[in-house]
Amino acid sequence: MRIAIIGTGNVGSAIARGLAGKGHAVTLGARNPQDADLVALATEVGAGLARPETAAAGAEIVILALPWGAADAAVRALGDLAGKIVIDCMNPLGMVDGVLGLTLGHSTSGGEIVQGWLPGAQVVKTLNQVGAEIMAKNDHLPQRPVMVMAGDSEDAKARVAGLLTDLGFAPLDAGGIVRARLLEPFGMLWINQALLRGKGRNWAFAAVEG
Ligand SMILES: NC(=O)c1ccc[n+]([C@@H]2O[C@H](COP(=O)([O-])OP(=O)(O)OC[C@H]3O[C@@H](n4cnc5c(N)ncnc54)[C@H](OP(=O)(O)O)[C@@H]3O)[C@@H](O)[C@H]2O)c1
Q1: Which segments of the chain have a pLDDT < 70?
Q2: What is the mean pLDDT of the chain?
Q3: Residues with Cβ within 8 Å of residue 192, at least 6 apart in sequence
Q4: Which residue's CA is minimally distant from atom 17 of ligand 1?
Q5: How far, in Å, is the centroid of ligand 1 from the Cα of 209?
Q6: Residue 137 belongs to some domain of the structure
Q7: Taking CB atoms and a 6 Å cutoff, what residues make up the pocket around ligand 1?
Q8: CATH code, domain carrying 160
Q9: What angle do CA 183, 141, 127 make, to 5 degrees?
Q10: How many independent structural domains does the chain possess?
Q11: How high is the pLDDT of residue 51?
Q12: pTM of the entire structure?
């Protein structure tokens, strides 16, 4: 599939590494595509490199890996994404009562807000529930980690499930985009353990069935 990754920080670069060699045409969308480190990353993973709006225009799937605070303006600057699948990996984080937490929830979610910005696109919330390192490489884990997704389009989720499988995850469908209200606190649960309770970053959630 033709995939644009908008934002090339921890998450964007991890997904680019995780998808390398999996048969996709990946373009990194960056504000400064001349940056030497990004040129090196693009070469390493066999990706193209372009301005965000150019990368998004040529893609079937647009992955948003931006800081939440920058997302509104950055997403609007991408232009018309109607008809595209948009993967929202972002967690609406900020300081809440003096500690890192979610700045919204219960009655809405980041995923629903992104879908509201992009009414013609099929937004799928996912890849927000583990650290970037596990997105890039997880085959050392004893079990295939689970990755939950939420979105209103069954067709979009089926295609995103294929991508999640390529990244080493067992996809799990939580339902419509309204279920991003569950996925964002679930991401916060990973952050709480990893960063605030000292568990570190080399782990993920798995689903066991009997
Ligand atoms: N880090 C994790 O382990 C992790 C895991 C799951 C989900 N997330 C979520 O994923 C998102 C990204 O996290 P991250 O750790 O990858 O952040 P990051 O390392 O700070 O990277 C953010 C990227 O967004 C780009 N960017 C910022 N403003 C932009 C704009 N206006 N237009 C275009 N690009 C812009 C930055 O570009 P420049 O380099 O040009 O500034 C950078 O490439 C966040 O919402 C976070 O909550 C993170």
Answers
A1: none
A2: 97
A3: none
A4: 9
A5: 34
A6: yes
A7: 7-12, 31-32, 52, 65-68, 70, 73-74, 89-91, 93, 128, 131-132
A8: 3.40.50.720
A9: 25
A10: 1
A11: 98
A12: 0.98
